[in-house]
Design a protein that fits this description.
The chain is an alpha+beta fold. The protein contains 13 helices and 21 strands.
Length: 403
């Protein structure tokens, strides 16, 4: 039996952040990280395209919480304790300068996730944190006010146990056996698979200021839309996938979306098209894109409106004008499945939020059992928000560990 003051299950972002802060706040505690694989911080390595999107430039707690489909209410208090500015200060004080990009994402100036990994490994060594790999947990239970943890090769005892394994079905099962309720995990960030002649030949096209709705639901999102080889992606689609994670899973990822490519009312669009018929009368419709629509997308929407390639604006009839207005403002596309968004493996699901005390991230069912990161039912949009949840939870666990 190996004895520790604190054992952290999970050698990822939240686990290391908790361990380092514990080491700094309580220098005398003996701390260990148990990682099931042979390497640690694997998700950090691939995040942000290998650059590690550590957080997002949103500095108001109330605004920051709106990026979390699950956890918005619960995170307000924690974000008042530790959020974006604190994260930036934490890394920069440890020799990792950060930069804010135009879209608000924050990365190390090195543009290399290894910078973050090296920081964590250096700090963990500085505070004598034992990082133990190939320690796949087989069970853990409370015994005489302590926690006994059994792995495939060793047994451990700890006064405090922190679970920071992310979305791990095996660990969720162990927690269910301890009485915790687990919200069934479903994908949270994904792109839409769409097979449609209007977009089949134009992958790579980006439409700005697009409004997308899931038909027969209240789900709606606004922002850029990227046409891909398999369908659609970019912020507008990813926001729908995150906020609609549970509802879209119930639909088995087969549903219709309505797209307003110009974010205007149908009648307003029709009125403008009628004006264009007069002002651009001699020009060919397909060669005169309007409403800041990309040329290749405009061509496809024109063709879909039964307008031939040589038709001039002056020759458009009433039905063609109405069809084009409809394609611009209320185009229907059938979604048939989903695809993983880049390297993001985010799920909705985890420990029921009602069973976590967000003042210290301790289990409400068991003393000296704490959680950090995606093990709980919190997830966010892409852009550094999921990491910020990990940093915040891990810091608060560390700060309140001796309470």
């Amino acid at each position: 039996m190996k004895n520790y003051d604190v054992i952290i299950i999970g050698g990822g972002a939240a686990g290391f952040f908790a361990a380092i802060n514990i080491g700094e706040l309580y220098p005398g505690l003996k701390v260990a990280i148990l990682e099931r694989g042979k390497d640690v911080l694997g998700k950090v390595k691939v995040s942000g395209g290998g650059r590690c999107n550590v957080t997002h430039a949103e500095f108001i707690p109330q605004e920051l919480t709106t990026y979390y489909p699950r956890g918005e209410k619960e995170l307000l208090g924690p974000f008042h304790t530790f959020m974006t500015g604190d994260t930036m200060g934490w890394f920069e004080s440890r020799g990792v300068p950060l930069k804010i990009e135009d879209d608000g994402r924050i990365f190390p100036t090195s543009n290399n996730s290894q910078t973050i990994i090296d920081c964590f490994l250096t700090e963990a060594k500085k505070y004598n944190v034992d990082v133990l790999t190939n320690q796949s947990v087989a069970s853990f239970k409370s015994v005489n006010s302590k926690w006994d943890i059994v792995t495939k090769t060793d047994t451990f005892s700890a006064n405090k146990l922190i679970v920071a394994t992310g979305s791990n079905p095996k660990i969720w099962t162990f927690l269910e056996q301890l009485g915790h309720t687990i919200a069934k995990p479903v994908p949270s960030l994904f792109t839409f698979n769409i097979n449609d002649s209007r977009i089949k030949e134009i992958p790579g096209v980006v439409a700005q200021n697009v409004r997308v709705k899931v038909v027969d639901s209240k789900l709606e999102a606004y922002g850029p839309l990227l046409i891909t080889h398999w369908g659609m992606s970019a912020p507008s689609i990813l926001k729908l996938s995150a906020f609609g994670a549970l509802e879209l899973a119930k639909k088995d990822y087969k549903f219709d979306i309505e797209i307003n490519f110009i974010n205007q009312d149908y009648n307003d669009a029709l009125s403008q098209l009628k004006d264009l018929k007069q002002t651009l009368s001699k020009k060919t419709v397909i060669k005169a894109p309007q409403f800041d629509i990309p040329k290749r997308l405009w061509k496809q929407l024109v063709v879909a409106s039964n307008i031939t390639e040589d038709t001039r604006w002056a020759d458009l009839n009433k039905l063609q004008l109405e069809a084009l207005a409809s394609q611009l403002t209320e185009a229907i596309f059938k979604v048939d499945g989903k695809s993983t968004f880049k390297e993001e493996f985010v799920t909705a699901g985890g420990i029921d939020l009602k069973e976590v005390n967000f003042k210290n991230y301790q289990s409400k069912l068991h003393n000296n059992l704490y959680f950090a990161g995606e093990i709980i039912n919190v997830d966010a949009l892409t852009g550094g928000f999921n990491f910020q949840n990990a940093w915040t939870g891990a810091y608060i666990v560390a700060k309140n560990l001796e309470d």
